[in-house]
Fold Hydrolase.
Amino acid sequence: MGITAAGAVWEPHAAYFEKHFRCIIGDNRGVGLTDKPEGDYSTAMMADDYAGLLDELNIENAHIIGCSMGSTIAQQLAIRHPEKVKSLVLMCPWARCDNAAKGIFQHIVNCKAKFSPEEFSLYIQLLIYSKASWDDEKFATELEEGRKSAHLDPNPQPLHGLKGQAAACINHSVLAELSSVLQPTLVIGGKEDIFTPEWMANEIVATMPNAELFLYEKAGHAFHFENVEDFNTRVTDWFLGH
């Protein structure tokens, strides 16, 4: 999953994927039930975490799907441990940060330090959901309910865990190395993503030899929640074909 998110966020998708695959869901370093060491993390470090998890589970290789920060970890896994990767789905990815992206990641940390859980949840929602979702009354009500329950998280991410993840996101820079990743790759996102804009996906597809692109209309960074059924079947069909 992406920055701030625990692995449990995958459940609406894993419940469908597991009809066809064995699904392994991890908590990234710095969040959930995994270790949350002090200091900066890197996407290479977190890719090595997942390589170790695959080894521990005696899984020789796997289809890899990563969302946002998870996509950067997936890129590094394919670069550093190519033998472990059958194919890739990179959701709302980037291969490098421009100054705007670096500013957003720093602002996420600043907000976490100063906001209540409900206020922080609102900022993240504004960052990842499209206008179409906010304009849908049912969807907007669900977002409000999510904010109201934000303080109930039994295992909230500590600020130092978020800082470590933000450093990994900001310093991720692998565009040149992606040209050596030969595994079939689906790059997928939303056309109205203000967090990781379309150009970030486009330059990855232009660099990776066996990558293809699909972008949802009127969808943001959380395009997979805005199009749950289509996303689940689309990704499942893609993995079954590769």
Remarks:
- Residues 32 and 156 are 7 Å apart (CA to CA).
